[in-house]
User: What shape does this take?
Amino acid sequence: MTAYPVRPALFIDGHWLHGEGRATHQVMNPATGAVLAELPLATTADLDAALDAAARGYPLWRATSVDEKAAVLAGAARLMRERVEMIATTATLEQGKPLAEARAELGYAAALTDFYAGEVRRNYGRVLTRPTGQRSLVIHEPVGPSLALCPWNFPILNPARKLAPALAAGCSMIIKPPEEAPGTSILVLQCFIDAGLPASVASMVFGVPDTVSRHLIASPIIRKISFTGSVPVGKHLMRLAADGAKRTTMELGGHGPVIVWDDCDIEKTVTMVSAFKWRNAGQVCVSPTRLIVHEAIADRFAAAMATRAKALTVGPGLDAATQMGPLANPRRPLAMESLIGDAMAQGATLLAGGARVGSTGNFWAPTLLADVPLSARLMNEEPFGPVALVHRISTMEEAIAEANRLPFGLAAYLFTENARTANLMADAVESGMVGINTMAMSAADSPFGGVKDSGHGSEDGPEGMRAFQVIKAIHQH
Assistant: This one.
């Protein structure tokens, strides 16, 4: 059995804090149910110490030179790549995803951190045209000490996705990663520390999420909140932030519509959609879920998707043969049972999967349903699991109506060989991101974010750093 390589701890003001009488949370292996470690949870005094460190670290880091900031970020990216096996293995042990997926996740986190090492030097403002002897400048300044709240589905990427742009902008940060996958986040933070990040600039805390978020958001020290997670929790955090008029970036849930037109390359489309649907066992905010398929090809498309689903090898993420790992925690199989049971009771047709796999761990078979009524919960609630739904349509108007029917608007996809169809549908779909004949939504230089209930603001790209900055106009006569 692969050993768990981390001793979970809090990191506050340059110190790693272990149990020492604190309440703890059991970190579980989702493939076996075994306890990996005991995670210490922050006390109120710990949270106050983290706030104090952020307040002291902010002016220090803000005044740090561009070259020094860039060196820390580039160094962190280099260390991530050097430590890929330890970090990826820890992610698989804690979260369950296949080791190959964890390695790829680290690769993107390192690339993103590298991008922000360069973006530090591209913090451009502008000079406005004024009469001789006058100057008007527009500059971007760091917003101040920030709070990042991360989910468990991408325990390598999510901390890096928040730390790197905040540090590039000149902010200090308190980060609360998921209690389900703490070791991975600890190893990511360690890369920044070992690359030279001053001790007071970043702290990492764990605890009861609502208790931690209420205490930290209420502090006048925190000026910005960045959250990735569910819509209800995001709205709750926005309400807390409103009391202090604090800036927020919210990357919330989705229910990815995939419009598959009758002129698409079916084999190519099935290959791409399948790979991204079952990635991370469907526990991805941009996962393709509602497959809105033209009736002329719906049967062929559904049959091909079902064949792919049934052929997948489900097992522990550390096994080389595994193509899809377990769900991340015991709550997810229960959610699958409830959502799929509701759809079946309302007349949906089961084409693949639909049940647990084995008697140990949180394994669920890749599931495909067809003819799911719009009244079913699955057609309205983000499943966050390995289930896809084939929904037949016959006109472009029907396709657009279904894609836009829900209050979500994170990622949408379209497969067609007709450029006019692609342009019309891409314009009409209400979504922060649209993929045309591709499922790739993430790139280091491209904004990642949604609209409607899927949130506001963007991560990644120049926009990710701008999210941690404020605009100042300076007029001189």
About this structure: The mean pLDDT is 97. Residues 447 and 460 are 5 Å apart (CA to CA).
